[in-house]
Amino acid sequence: MDHKTPRPMTPFDLLTVPDALYSIKLFLPYTPVSMQRFLAIYIKFGELRYTIEYFHGFPSHSTSRDMMADLKPYLNEKEQTMMEQAENMMHMMEILQSMQTMSDSSSGQDMNPMDFIKNILTPEQQEMFDMYSQMFDTDMNMSNSDKKKGGMTHE
Predict the structure, then answer these.
(1) Which of 1, 3, 25, 49 has the greatest number of beta carbons closer than 10 A?
(2) Distances from the Cα of 48 to the Cαs of 16, 29, 38, in angstroms?
(3) How many CB atoms lie within 10 A of CB 29?
(4) Contact 97, 90 (CB under 8 A)
């Protein structure tokens, strides 16, 4: 039998497997073969009973953002990449929705995209953004003043 790499317990198992059953599961391979079948069935029934008790009323505990972070350790590399792409798309949609909301609320006034970008940054990121903007503006102004009009070599 191939030896599989152990995986961390899923959030579901953390919620529905009490410590006593977890310990029995750990010791199951080391018990006499004659007892393993009984203990395995006992564990599964115990898990089912605790699961039914826990989800009586089906409580909701997490958001989709939490869900994605919780699932990543259980996915292979390809699935993690796909999950990250989905997260990025969701984040982009949130930004676009925010831009749309800001555009709607400005009621006809021109909306500056740079102001929008600055508003979604942390104060430290805003400082860095301002610094790079000033550097870029200075560089652009210097390069524009060096350009000559009318010559074929500068078109």
Answers:
(1) 25
(2) 8, 21, 15
(3) 8
(4) no
74: tokens are 């259980």
Q: Where are the domains of the chain?
A: 11-54, 62-107, 112-145
Interior angle at CA 60, CA 57 and CA 66, nearest 5: 160
**For the CA atoms of the chain, what is the radius of gyration?**
29
CA distance 45 to 41: 6
**Residue-wise pLDDT tens digits, 56-104:** 765 555 566 677 777 778 788 888 888 888 777 777 777 777 767 766 6
Pull the structure tokens for residue 155: 């078109």
For residues 21 and 49, the answer to whether their CB atoms sit within 8 Å is no
Locate 100 and state its tokens. 């749309």
Is this model's pTM higher than 0.70 or not?
no
Tokens describing residue 43: 């564990």
Is residue 50 within 8 A of residue 18, CB to CB? The reply is yes
Please state, in angstroms and rounded to a whole number, the distance separating the CA atoms of residues 145 and 155. Answer: 15
Residues 6+ apart with CB under 8 A from 6: none
